[in-house]
Amino acid sequence: MDPLPNPAPLASKLRNTLVRYHSIGDGEWRVAKKTKDAIVWRKPSEEFSGYLYKAEGVVEDVTNRIVDHIRPGPYRLDWDSLMTSMDIMETFEENCCVMRYITAGQLWNIIAPREFVDFSYTTSYEDGLLTCGISLDYGEVRPNFVRGFNHPCGWFCVPLKDSPGHSLLTGYIQTELRGLLPQSAVDTAMSSTLASFYSDLKKALKT
Question: In Gene Ontology terms, what is one molecular function of this protein (predicted)?
Answer without folding.
Answer: cholesterol transfer activity
